[in-house]
Amino acid sequence: MADKTEKTGAKKGEKSKKTTELDTTKQQRITQLGLKTTPISTRSMTVLDKTPGNCAKKSSRESPPYGAPEMVDTDELTAIQESLNEIKGTMVKKSDIEEIVSAILCKLREEIKTEIKEEIKEEIKAEIKEEIANELEQKLDENSKQFNTMTKEMSDGFSLDFNNLQEKFHKQASEFREMSQKLKKCLFTAEAALKLSNSNQQYSQKNNIKFTNWKENKTEKLREDLIQILKSTVGIELDPHDVLEIHRIPGGGAQNGPRPVIAKFRNSETKIRVIRKRQDAQLKKHFFMHDHLTTMNGHLIRDLNNDDRIDQAWYFNGKVFALDTKGKRHKFDVLDQIGDKLRT
To answer: How far apart, in Å, are the Cα atoms of 97 and each of 88, 94, 106, 290, 339?
Structure first.
């Protein structure tokens, strides 16, 4: 009997232990479901069941006799039913879960779409940038190659043109030097020829005397008239053969005064003997006498007389002389520069 009693107590202890575990599990589920309140009967039962002594006492006190059917506590069943009802009331409905899940999925879908769009945009931008960069780089390379080719061609062309121009320049410079030398030689020759021509012309006229202000007469005989005037005024007797030629210079007219007369004497002595009397007052009543100068010598003497640095200028024996304001005498030729000549 004792052994049977011990076995019965052990079975009841195991059953109480299982009941306690079930109650603990129920309490955890209720807590997970968010239940704020638990039925008083369930809480008291849970607390009482958690005490080992009470569990033992209850088991020993309420355990039915061996072999008798186990009685069910209606209060506990009522409390469990109420707890189940509360749990059922607090549970979320399937439709609510579906709505929540749908809302979450829609939100996630929108967020995923947005993220995908942003990623696609970034990828497209990156690809476009890369394509543009590659295209620009390619175009820059092509343009650089074209530019280098063009510059090289232009450089080669310029170099060739420059070389051709340089050769032409050297050739023209050589020709210019030759022409310059020839021009200098021609200029020197021309100056020498001009001086020689003027000198020869003046030499051919060295025995000539130019008479101005000699009144014209249609029946005039210039040779006889000249011999008579010189004899009657200054007492110079001339042979008709002493006057080789005598004539008036063509051109002019009565409105410009009498035309000058040119007389060529046989030799220089006769010419000098006559021209020395040119300052005679009685002779000036008939005409004025001058050396017969070439045009260039006449212009030279005129320029010298008009220069403030020259006191006087004159002609003697085929040459032109001048006296400056300092009293220094200078000999001039037709191509001499007055300033350069005075500095020497």
So the answer is: 15, 5, 14, 149, 127
Kindly list the distances between the CA atom of residue 172 and the CA atoms of 184, 187, 324, in Å, as whole numbers in the listed order: 17, 21, 47
When pLDDT is averaged across residues 178-183 and rounded to a whole number, the result is 90
Is residue 72 situated within a structural domain?
no
pTM: 0.47
Provide the token pair at 145.
């190659």
**Residue range 261-288: mean pLDDT, rounded:** 91
Cα angle 89, 90, 96; round to 5: 100
The two beta strands, 310-316 and 243-248, are unpaired
Asked if the model's pLDDT at residue 247 lies above 70, the reply is yes
Indicate whether 17 belongs to any domain: yes
User: Nearest to residue 243, comparing CAs of 231, 259, 257?
Assistant: 231
DSSP 2: H
Q: Does residue 37 fall inside a structural domain?
A: yes
Amino acid occupying residue 178: E
Q: Are 238 and 227 in contact (CB under 8 A)?
A: yes
Measured between alpha carbons, how far is 333 from 344 in angstroms, rounded to an integer?
14
- The domain containing residue 334 runs over which residues? 200-343
Mode of pairing for the β-strands spanning 261-265 and 288-291:
unpaired
- 87-135 confidence digits (pLDDT tens): 777 766 777 778 888 888 888 888 888 888 888 888 888 888 888 888 8
Residues 6+ apart with CB under 8 A from 134: none
Q: Kindly report the CATH number assigned to the domain that includes residue 247.
A: 3.30.70.1820
